[in-house]
Amino acid sequence: MQVSRGLLLVGRLTICALAGLLVFYHAYTLYDLYLGSGTDIYDVGNANTHDLYRHIQSILRVLIISSLVLVVLNKRPALYGMWIAIASLVATHYWAYFFDLPFRFLQGTHPLSYLKGFIIPTVITLLFLATHSHGASDKRAA
Predict the structure, then answer these.
(1) Residue 40 — very low, low, confident or very high, per pLDDT cuts 50/70/90?
(2) Which of 15, 35, 59, 70 could make a disulfide contact with 78, Cβ separation 3.0–4.6 Å?
(3) Between these two residues, 37 and 124, which has the higher pLDDT value?
(4) Distance between CA 124 and CA 74 in Å, rounded?
(5) Which stretch of DSSP H or E encloses residue 56?
(6) What whole-number distance in Å separates Cα of residue 39 and Cα of residue 44?
(7) Is residue 25 within 8 Å of 77, Cβ to Cβ?
(8) Contact 5, 138 (CB under 8 A)
(9) Residue 102 to residue 110: CA distance in whole angstroms
(10) Are 61 and 30 in contact (CB under 8 A)?
């Protein structure tokens, strides 16, 4: 099945746009946490209580940003890194939820709401694999 170059370009641009959105979101979250107001802190008077949690989340956010940049640069192994980092970040949200950590992002949420963090990575992965499978089949046909 022959896919036009335009369609492949649209797929790559969509990957770049979605990855850029996630990179911006996680970079802004890190900025806000360390240089901004830290609006995710629920108990401001006792801000140092959960430093380990915040540092783990920060490391995961840096890993997500790094892996997304590599995905945009067309590095297939970066997909694995992206999934590991995002799944770990979602796991930390469950850690905070089930251990009643005092963070604002937990207020009024349902446990299943954290699974929405997998939507954009799923779209990125499907588009990445689709553009690569068609690219490989085009090379074989030539």
Answers:
(1) low
(2) 70
(3) 124
(4) 12
(5) helix 51-72
(6) 9
(7) no
(8) no
(9) 15
(10) yes
What's the length of the chain? Answer: 142
Q: How far apart are CA 25 and CA 45, in angstroms?
A: 26
Residue ranges of the alpha helices (H) in 99-118? none
Alpha-carbon span 24 to 142, nearest angstrom: 39
CA distance 79 to 97: 27
Query: CA angle at residue 56 from 39 to 68, to 5 degrees?
Result: 90
User: DSSP of 31-46, one letter per residue?
Assistant: HHHHTS--TTBS-GGG
C-alpha 35/C-alpha 54 separation (Å) is 14
Task: Give the pair of three-digit tokens for residue 105.
Answer: 């992002």
Beta carbons of 28 and 36 less than 8 angstroms apart = no
Q: Which string of b and e fits 30-55 if b means at least 16 CB within 10 Å?
A: beebeeeeeeebbeeeeeeebeeebe
Task: Pull the structure tokens for residue 25.
Answer: 């979101």
Distances (CA, A) of 95 to 1, 56, 88, 127: 46, 12, 10, 31
